[in-house]
Specification:
The chain has 381 residues and is mainly β. It folds into 2 domains: 189 residues, no CATH class; 163 residues, Glucose Permease (Domain IIA). The chain contains 4 helices and 23 strands. The strands form 5 sheets. Strands 5, 6, 7, 8, 9, 10, 11, 12 and 13 form a 9-stranded antiparallel beta sheet that branches. The two termini are 31 Å apart. Bound molecules: zinc ion (ZN). The site of zinc ion has 5 residues, from loops.
Length: 381
Amino acid sequence: MTRCIKKNLLSISLTLPLGLIAAGLLWQVGATGCGNSTISNPNTENNPNPTVSDIIPSAAGLIALPNDFTLLGTSVERDLSAITLSSTFGPRLKSSEQFRNDFHRGIDLPGNLGDKVLAMAAGNIDKIDTTTEGGLSVRIKHPFSSPVQFQGKSHTHYYTLITHLDSVTGPALAEQNQPDLEPAVAAGEQIGTLGQSGSTTFNHNHIEVRIGTPCSLEFQKANPESSCAQGFDPHVHPLLFMQADDGLAPAIEEVVRNGNVLRIRITTNAQLPDFNRLACALLDSNGDPISINGDVVFKEIDINARIGYQPGDIDTLDTLISSDGSIETIPAVFSQQTYIDNGKYLIHVEIDLSDAPAEATSLLIHAEDIWGNSRQITSTL
Ligand SMILES: [Zn+2]
């Protein structure tokens, strides 16, 4: 049995000041859902009185990289710590396409036209491609030293993809000229120059990390007969492969309460826009989670684990679950932008408590980064 989230009892909205795009404009977005958005923790399934730790387990351990895994370098000649990402992994609103919602499956490193673009790890050039969206791109196949479990399967390889290049050079040029060659490439070897080819408006590298299959879920859906159609979304947050765990949990603060709407702010290091997970639960006066008709009142968004999303349907691939046939539709889009203030990466969250049951006396809010560093606060209602 799976438990369905009671979305009508607790709705979460994320609101992000768009300092980089439209100063002063707030995007009112929300993340709700029932349907596929069930509680993933089996501890609650046959447990009539789940505790807080039962319903909000750590999501750490999504991917266990081999102990000898060498973290990826950046694709440009700068340390990651010297770069402010212009967009991070996860849901966002895409200004270049009339604010269409978009699951950004990579991170964006801004740079200058003609900057050297480097292989982020040793491997073999797998494919050079030119598409309307990504422009000129280089995909590299890299071995794991030992198999890695992901999406219920064991994988021996991962892939890096760098798009929007201005040109390809060295082994990437050789591959472009002879697509069966798949030449070896060393970590840090130049493969091209930075640009803005494809659907973008500024010079940057869009970087993706794909585990186990070179093909995006979009491609797999469109080409189900392809050998690369493995039936799962291979993308993970590239920072998991690029940056050692900083050990810092996101900070959570209550900013303002306006009637039944509680606004909180989640803060992470600006150099590491590593926010991954938000979970909320209503608690009774004993500090126990509240259940209604056997369903724990609980909300969860997990970007890397694709919880709270509809990743299996190409039509809604890029959106969070926004409706369910049996439940009223709430305008529901979860979004984040790299909004930076005083060197911090900020996410504003609005939580509407207007339908909270009378026995609810507090709200537990749990925020977690991609490494599982987490923090919880309890807000008295
Ligand atoms: Zn991008």
